[in-house]
Amino acid sequence: MEIRFYGVRGSISVSGSRIGGNTACVEVTSQGHRLIFDAGTGIRALGELLMRESAPQKATLFFSHLHWDHVQGFPFFTPAYLGTTELSLYGPGANGAQALQSVLVQQMEPPNFPVPLSIMRSRMTFGSALHGTPVEVGPFRVTPVDVPHPQGCLAYRVEADGHTFVYATDVELARDSLTRDVGRYLEGADALVLDAQYTPSEYAGQGGIPKKGWGHSTMVDAAQVAQAVGAQRLMLFHHDPAHNDDLLENMAEEARLHFFASEPAREGKRIVLGSTVTA
Ligand SMILES: [Zn+2]
Ligand SMILES: [Zn+2]
């Protein structure tokens, strides 16, 4: 299983960051099958790479939720405009298929965008991702998990080739508030992506508004959760748009005091599970 980060920023994209300015998009591939988690602005670059391949494209997209930083890149995902492309798209919750489709339609309606979603020629099918109900895609078993976030959000546990990857963005978690129901889906991940938007002092409101209840975690909470669930490595994710690269590196440094294998998720970073190869 190979994981690649195309967007690691939260809330809104930024420029001038080496760690990454694009909003959420993570690709997971195995045995010729492709999963895409979220369609933030990072999905544009992924689309450009896919356009260089001559074979028709097929992918399954799982949306954590429908906040704009997780859907806004979709109109710029060029393979979606090709008639040869097949896309399965999963929206969150019982009404996920309809909710996702209507958000993707609305964000391209006039006056928001020059062309409507219907101009995309790819074959799109919409499904609903439900808590605890696995979706099988090729070698992958993908299990959605309800996590605490305003209006709800899904984390995804991805199992394939004897390895486990967990994508858990936009979640307000702490070791003490980690319920058994959420914890068991994070258990033993070889690679764990966790929301780590804030520093503990920002979260507490020092020098500003307290961020409690906003649906995001601190890097210390993320590291303590990673330790508690026995993760192998942790990628701190959903970087705050106000945080520069130095601060993100310092946050990871502090996270390592609680869980040694912590690092900031970096745009372009590739992780291969089941091998020592990383780039
Ligand atoms: Zn977000
Ligand atoms: Zn959100």
UniProtKB/TrEMBL annotation:
A Pfam family: Lactamase_B_2
Source organism, top-level taxon: Bacteria
Gene3D superfamilies, A to Z: Ribonuclease Z/Hydroxyacylglutathione hydrolase-like (3.60.15.10)
Domain called Metallo-beta-lactamase: residue spans: 22-207
Protein name: Metallo-beta-lactamase family protein
